[in-house]
TrEMBL record:
Keyword Cell wall biogenesis/degradation attributed: no
Keywords: DNA-binding, Membrane, Transcription, Transcription regulation, Transmembrane, Transmembrane helix
InterPro entries for the chain: Homeodomain-like_sf (IPR009057), HTH_AraC (IPR018060), HTH_AraC-typ_CS (IPR018062), Tscrpt_reg_AraC-type_HTH (IPR020449)
Gene3D superfamilies reported for this sequence: Homeodomain-like
Name of the protein this chain belongs to: Helix-turn-helix domain-containing protein
Top-rank lineage group of the source organism: Bacteria
Length: 347
């Protein structure tokens, strides 16, 4: 059968080409967030290109090394997770996140020398691992953006939901393959989701600055806030936190603080990001964790962990545990056990 294009593959080829172009455009907006996001879009686009080559039969005419594009699924999760957490100035995706992709490269190089039966087993095993890998990162990214919704912004939540949708479509595709129910129309489904992901980013980027906007950027080009004014605003914010103990409000939001202090929410976000080096959520949680440590060390009371969470200003135990471990290095329960060993009277 001669290689050929049809309407669907032409559409996907155009989407892949536009995705590659979009990745380059995103990279021109120099920032850590855009580095991760551009890499995600590029990986999606190259995978889409691989699918087009496979469906049309042109893959048989292409260099064998292009087959490595199929393993780029192992890059999507770490890169997307890096993007959703890119507002944290000190955060970097560790090298170990990319170990599965390196293992895939080794597997890809070894595969041709294995028997046909072993090759089939390896291909299925890799597919299962890719699916699990995608779901783990999609779940972690979605949970992160949801828990840190104020800092992450609605855009990252929407994108995380889309990424989970891609993971589900990936699973559905291979379920259909393994059950023998796959049709060519279903075969295109996973690429439709990938294309939707690319076009959504392109559309939102064309609409405005949401894609390229970074909540914790070093400067706010249009704010016009002077250094002295920024320092004065920050002093007022800290006074509110330290004297009025605003962090004890379990429902404290950026807009609520802005209304209380008669300072715009954008200016509060700016001074916290630029002068404190963190997002608003981490800024508030830092005070709450200090309060929690004080309560854990309180010899006059024997609070339970969940009581301390609410007394310190958190509105659920999961967020409390996550924030405490982030700033202290260990979960509150472990911190309490260490205190009890040092001061048996606290038990």
């Amino acid at each position: 059968m001669e290689p050929s294009l049809n309407t669907w593959t032409v559409i996907f080829l155009i989407a892949a080409s536009q995705g590659i172009f979009l990745a380059v455009v995103i990279w021109t907006k120099r920032h850590q967030a855009n580095g991760y996001l551009g890499a995600v879009v590029l990986a999606f686009s190259l995978m889409l290109l691989y699918y087009v080559l496979y469906w049309t039969g042109y893959f048989r005419l292409a260099p064998r090394w292009l087959g490595v594009l199929q393993g780029m699924t192992f890059l999507l999760g770490p890169l997307f997770y890096g993007y959703v957490r890119s507002d944290e100035r000190l955060f970097r995706v560790g090298v170990w996140h990319f170990v599965p992709f390196v293992i895939y490269l080794i597997h890809f190089l070894v595969l041709p020398f294995e028997s046909l039966e072993l090759r089939r087993v390896l291909v299925r095993s890799v597919t299962v691992l890719q699916t699990i890998h995608l779901f783990v990162y999609a779940a972690v990214a979605l949970r992160w953006t949801w828990v840190n919704a104020l800092a992450s912004g609605r855009w990252r939540i929407v994108l995380s939901v889309l990424f989970m949708g891609y993971a589900l479509s990936f699973l559905l595709y291979y379920v259909l393959v393994w059950t023998g129910l796959l049709k060519i129309e279903y075969d295109y489904f996973i690429s439709v989701v990938a294309g939707a992901f690319i076009y959504t980013i392109g559309y939102k980027g064309y609409q405005g600055r949401e894609v390229f906007h970074v909540n914790t950027g070093v400067k706010y080009d249009r704010s016009g806030l002077s250094q002295s004014a920024a320092e004065a605003f920050l002093a007022e914010v800290k006074r509110y936190m330290e004297e009025d103990k605003g962090y004890l409000n379990n429902d404290l939001k950026l807009q609520y603080m802005a209304d209380e202090l008669a300072i715009s929410a954008n200016h509060i976000s700016q001074v916290v990001n630029e002068l404190e080096g963190c997002n608003f959520t981490d800024f508030v949680n830092r005070y709450r964790v200090q309060e929690a440590k004080r309560l854990l060390q309180d010899e006059a009371h024997h609070y339970k962990i969940i009581q301390i969470a609410y007394l310190a200003g958190f509105n659920n135990k999961a967020t409390f545990n996550s924030a405490f471990k982030k700033f202290v290095g260990v979960p509150p329960s472990q911190f309490k056990k260490a205190l009890n060993r040092q001061h048996p009277q606290l038990q």
